[in-house]
Amino acid sequence: MLFLSSIVLVLFSCGYSLAQHEHHNHMQHNHEEHRVNVAVYYESLCPDSRKFFTQQLYPSLQGNLSHYVNLTLVPYGKTTSELNLNEHTFTCHHGPNECRGNKIQACALRLIDAGQNTEGLGFNKIATGFINCLMDKADREKGYFPTMDCAQINHVANLNTIDNCVNHTDASNYLSKFGELTDKLQKPLQSVPTIVFNNVYNKEDSDLAQINFVRALCKHIPGDKPECIKSGAGILQMSFVVVAVSIILSKFFS
């Protein structure tokens, strides 16, 4: 009887492990297939941008919904620029301090993990956390951005490289690229922040996202919604284990 119990336990463990593995693969494939492109056009010292990041966007990316988002952050907003002798000069909506904040974020987005997404996600988790921290803790009156504190909190390993970038022409070049993306959407940008789903601007969606990002996002997720996804593979594998055990027991006691 002890031998039989061991067989049952092994079969159950193997079946459960296989079910979990296939469930994970199924979920990862399903996430990638159903991801929604989300672009956020914002400014580093804009109060409404800060509110959106800290109360809507970032909290929503801490759970299962994070796997359904291809996120593009565009720190430019209503900034304007001029090019003189191959050098960009920026005028920012909330003054020179905001220009510096936009440059910090532009450098971070390009340089943290070389701008690559975190495995299994449609955005870089470290960069997004770092930027959310800056949005939350920046001192708008003093124009202070706590890069060191935010780097420590979010495990940013190359803060020195980012700092050097901010004081180099690279920052202006990176910010200019974000300006091109913004101008391609709207020139000038009508509202900050502006949130775009699947590359098509819709004012209703953008406004909704600022007060309920989850609801706005879920409108665009095709197929099953995250809370409705079931583990069909897991159920089948567990059924197989039950059938196998039943056959063994019937033969043993027959």
Features:
globular; 254 residues; Glutaredoxin; mainly alpha; 57% helix; signal; 10 helices; glycoprotein; 5 strands; disordered N terminus; two-stranded antiparallel ribbon
Radius of gyration: 24 Å
| CATH level-3 fold name of the largest domain | Glutaredoxin
Q: N-to-C SSE series?
A: HEHEEEHHHHHEHHH
Strand content: 5-15%
Signal peptide: 1-19
InterPro entries: Interferon-induced_GILT
Family: Belongs to the GILT family.
Protein name: Gamma-interferon-inducible lysosomal thiol reductase
How does this model look, in words?
It is a single chain. Helices cover 57% and strands 11% of the residues. By secondary structure, it is mainly alpha-helical. The chain folds into 2 domains: 1-34 and 228-254; 36-221, Glutaredoxin. The strands form 2 sheets. The protein has a 3-stranded mixed sheet. Helix 3 crosses helix 6 (159-166). The longest helix has 32 residues, at 2-33. The chain is globular, with a radius of gyration of 24 Å. The two termini are 14 Å apart. Mean pLDDT is 83; it is low at 2-29 and 228-247. Pfam families: GILT (PF03227). Keywords: Glycoprotein, Signal. Residues 1-19 form the signal peptide. This is Gamma-interferon-inducible lysosomal thiol reductase.
